[in-house]
Amino acid sequence: MFESAEIGHKLKKSEFQKEEPKLRQALLNVQYRLLEKSKFPVIILVNGVDGAGKGETVNLFNEWMDPRHIHTHAFGASNDAERARPEMWRFWISLPPKGRIGILFGSWYTDPILQRVMGNDGSGEFQQRLSRIRDFERMLVAEGALILKLWFHLSKDAQKTRLKQLSEKKKTAWRVTKEDWKHFKRYDEFVDVCEPALRETSTGEAPWNIIEGSNHEYRSLTAGRLLLAALERRLKAPAKAATATKAPPKSVIVRVDKRDVLNTADYSVKLDRDSYQKQLDKLQGQLNLLTRHKKMRERSIIMVFEGMDAAGKGSTIRRVTRAMDARFYHVVPIAAPSDEERAQPYLWRFWRHVPPHGHAVIFDRSWYGRVLVERVEKFCTDADWQRGYHEINEFEEQLAEGGAIVAKFWLAISQAEQLKRFKERGTIAHKQFKITDEDWRNRKKWPAYELAVADMIDHTSTDIAQWNVIASNDKPWARVETLKRLVETIEQQL
Amino acid sequence: MFESAEIGHKLKKSEFQKEEPKLRQALLNVQYRLLEKSKFPVIILVNGVDGAGKGETVNLFNEWMDPRHIHTHAFGASNDAERARPEMWRFWISLPPKGRIGILFGSWYTDPILQRVMGNDGSGEFQQRLSRIRDFERMLVAEGALILKLWFHLSKDAQKTRLKQLSEKKKTAWRVTKEDWKHFKRYDEFVDVCEPALRETSTGEAPWNIIEGSNHEYRSLTAGRLLLAALERRLKAPAKAATATKAPPKSVIVRVDKRDVLNTADYSVKLDRDSYQKQLDKLQGQLNLLTRHKKMRERSIIMVFEGMDAAGKGSTIRRVTRAMDARFYHVVPIAAPSDEERAQPYLWRFWRHVPPHGHAVIFDRSWYGRVLVERVEKFCTDADWQRGYHEINEFEEQLAEGGAIVAKFWLAISQAEQLKRFKERGTIAHKQFKITDEDWRNRKKWPAYELAVADMIDHTSTDIAQWNVIASNDKPWARVETLKRLVETIEQQL
Fold first, then answer.
1. Are residues A292 and A222 located together in one domain of the fold?
2. In chain A, what percentage of residues exceed pLDDT 70?
3. How far is B253 from chain A (nearest CA, A)?
4. At residue B431, does pLDDT exceed 90?
């Protein structure tokens, strides 16, 4: 894999000086076109061996282009806020918006490679992390991002020479740390791990570009031209090209008997007033205790509430929040995305609300919008919502690994019950704000929503985060059942 | 001050049970009206003595109203990210957007009071912090916020009884910490500090409401009614009422001789090519060294670039960034605010970019927009930009206290030079994107902008953050001068 990058690539200074101004002008031009169109973000990953010119190249990119529209992130040790969330969180919230260039220096590749070299991760864990990265990058590309992955390489001899050179000069000695020399001693192990890492993550949508780093002129011109070519190709492509990864085969299940989890649910379950109050009090007490459990300091809770209109999400959520201290939880009602959210991948507006350990977030509607309303209303392409299932499972897996307890509730009501509630809302003064024309429109699409819900549950009810389908025609029963399942889920996981 | 709150206020359970449902319904109604209109945010500060029912009240507010549109923040010890920024930063970024309710539990009052009680802050420092709070709240109100300040009080005896009661019951014992008893020992000192704190920060626009906390029913109904009354009053008020704090007298300076810092600047200064390159290299080297200075780990740099169109902000910024490692700085170009930014106080879109220690942020246009373009184009009221000077000075003072080195540059060009550059831009192909009709329109308002600039410099060039007016007709001179002043400013402060 690194053969070509050890042959001693060189470029004459004079040739570089001739080419640089042209490259620079061209880069600046494409950068402004990117900005003006603001159709997609550019994510540049900078990785490779120490001393191979990563920092210099990033600085050159900032010099050649307009640094006002480039955001460079360096990822070192995690801070408090990062350690209390999933590992990928700090990358999620550092992605550039459409029209901008983000340079991730020490990207999501650094830690998996390092942990493997140090022997902290076994081969299985390493493979799993690479596979996760592949999924993540595929998702970013499908969401429209242009990803340019640059790997700066040096042969063992070249790295030694380079580190020595830097150490000897007063001006550059600070750039070589003890850490660098420590890494150098493990050069062979490092390359042995990087080779499969690059191979397995060099995909059609986001291939690696390996650049030999020993010669400044060669390295810089190569990196610059790679960036220019990637940007030009993408700017020329038809608007939808990047996301037009071939639509996967429809993975929805054929239901020859028309039976699904919703229409086979038992909606007759009920709870009388007295049992309701007793059970509610008991369960709220249990939930309260659980949220103050010692282990909760290293865990978080993420609740998802979905359901047809008028299924009682709001009032059920209030029965849950009432059991918790207001300092412990946040409720995030999901409405139309803000313009900052529209400039990011679909999941970004949920990433930003991921709670730290010791806290809970309740999503009133959620990332499942992708496979529900967006699917039914055709707000996204078929390919978009179909890849959604896998992306969502992956997301929830990462939440769980980051210490979150994920509890998902589908509040199910029958069509008849919905009609009854709509009519009530129309007549009760203080409930009128809750019923809109859109609710009536959505109701007409019941069969399409029902299909989407059934598919959603089949695809995303996993060991990590099961769906709880709660029959909700009877509100007391639904509230108690929700609390019961929630308490069980938390108890199991603590 | 606390007399009324020590007389043993009580309410019968039966009366509370009669009133609660009405209050609840009314609160829910106003909350939805608040949300629907989304004209202003509601900030509820919850402070007071331990055991006086602060937590219970916050939980009740969340129970009475729809918790999906309430955001409760509890502020304990600072985390890494907070410690590396100005003290107020964590409050700045936790304010609710328009239409929402934010409950700040342990607000900006907690630390000043605590530090004074513990004797860490002297009387002068304490006064200064109170005065800063007054300014901050005044600004929030002027920006449209409704602030409700609730202080929960208990007499010394009542506090003792309360802490004992809580400690004795199994169910509530966890709520009383050692810290609480430690605080109790200092009850008298605490009250002695709180009294002046409340007195001096109880202003017309944001008065304190003191509530006796010993009786659940009395406390809860009082707090709820205070919130209801505040919300109803504000929702009934005409749209502009809240911000119509009487327009202060125009504080702009009368210039009888028409001379100002711009038209008296010497625009003839020049630098030849050779000296330029030599000095530029030297200064960039110095700047680079400074950014890697040991002391920089506890400091940050905030640069502000302002200037008439075509004054050369972009190209000057590039000479500055070139001297720094891309991992050290971010450039923030200020354009039209996003919808999330529009739902917050004016300064919010700058607050969110305040860098942590060890980093620099370069603002390409800045918070000075308030007293420049917003003033001239009448995007805000006269009162708004006039209060802007003081708010900006206050903001920069807090940045400086938080460890930031603030360096501000006005790149000054003559009208004739601007015309020349506009014409050039129109003819040079790769510069055409830089000239728009708006630039020509702005040019016609030169006198109004000049007046605004002169006023701005007079009001906001302070010991903490001086303005550097850089004659920029000659670009090489301007770049070198900017770097020179920047290097000087940083050297002085390290």
1. no
2. 96
3. 35
4. no
Q: Are residues A324 and A218 in the same domain?
A: no
The whole-number pLDDT of residue A183 equals 85
Q: What is the pLDDT of residue A254?
A: 62
**Is there a single domain that holds both residue B472 and residue B424?**
yes
A237 and A277: one domain? no
Where would I find the beta strands (DSSP E) of A139-204?
146-153
- Total structural domains in chain A? 2
Q: Is residue A250 part of a domain?
A: no
Domain check: are A167 and A231 in the same one? Answer: yes
- Chain B residue at shortest CA distance from A56: B325
Q: Could you tell me if A232 and A315 lie in one domain? A: no
**B170/A contact by beta carbon, under 8 A:** no
Tell if the CB–CB gap between A326 and B62 is shorter than 8 Å: yes
Q: Inter-chain contact B292–A174, Cβ cutoff 8 Å?
A: yes
Residues B101, B40: Cα–Cα separation, whole Å: 9
Closest CA in chain B for residue A35: B433
Q: Does A326 touch chain B (CB under 8 A)?
A: yes
Is B99 contained in some domain? yes
Inform me whether the C-beta atom of residue A26 falls under 8 Å from chain B C-beta atoms. Answer: no
- Give percent of chain B above pLDDT 70: 96
Nearest residue in A to B315, CA atom: A66
Mean pLDDT over residues B303-323, rounded?
95
Q: Are residues B325 and B227 in the same domain?
A: no
- pLDDT tier for residue A440 given thresholds of 50, 70 and 90: confident
Q: Tokens 């003890």 sit at which residue?
A: A178
B460-B463-B464 Cα angle (round to 5): 80
Which chain B residues have a beta carbon less than 8 Å from that of A174?
292
Residues of chain A with C-beta less than 8 angstroms from the C-beta of B73 = 327
Q: Is A406 left (phi over 0), alpha (psi -120 to 50) or beta?
A: beta
What Rg, from alpha-carbon coordinates, does chain B have? 27
Q: Give the pLDDT confidence of B249-267 residue by residue, as tens digits.
A: 454 566 677 788 888 899 9
Residue with tokens 């010119």: A53
Nearest to B66 among A32, A314, A332 (CB): A314
Please indicate whether residue A257 or residue B2 has the higher confidence score (pLDDT): B2
pLDDT at A429: 63
Beta strands per DSSP E along B165-214 = 208-212
Confidence at residue A250, expressed as pLDDT on a 0 to 100 scale:
52
Distance between CA atoms of B220 and A339, rounded to whole angstroms?
A: 39
pLDDT for B405 equals 97
Q: Which of A247-261, A402-416, B75-89, B417-431 holds the top average pLDDT?
A: A402-416
Last residue of a domain, one of B223, B243, B263: B243
Domain that holds residue A471: 273-493
Q: Which residues from A are below 8 Å from B25, CB to CB?
A: 430
Chain B residues with CB inside 8 Å of A36's CB? Answer: 433
**Residue whose token pair is 């000479």:** B319
Q: Which of B225, B243, B261 represents a domain boundary (last residue)?
A: B243
* Stretch (H or E) spanning A273: helix A273-291
- pLDDT, residue B358, reads 95
B475 occurs within a structural domain: yes
Interface list for A 252-271 with B (CB within 8 A): none
CATH classification of the domain holding A406: 3.40.50.300
In this structure, what token pair is assigned to residue B170?
Answer: 């199994």
Burial (CB count <10 Å: 0-12, 13-18, 19+), residue A24: middle
ipTM: 0.84
Of A425 and A93, more confident: A93
Cα–Cα distance measured from residue B119 to residue A116, given in angstroms and rounded to the nearest whole number: 52
| Whether residue A326 sits in one domain with residue A209 | no
In chain B, whose CA is at the least distance from the CA of A319?
B63
- Chain B residues inside the 8 Å CB shell of A80: 79-81
**Cβ neighbours of A71 in B, within 8 Å:** 330
**Residue A367 · residue A337 · CB < 8 Å:** no
- A407: closest CA of chain B, how far (Å): 18
Question: Is residue A249 over pLDDT 60?
Answer: no
* Rounded mean pLDDT, B215-235: 95
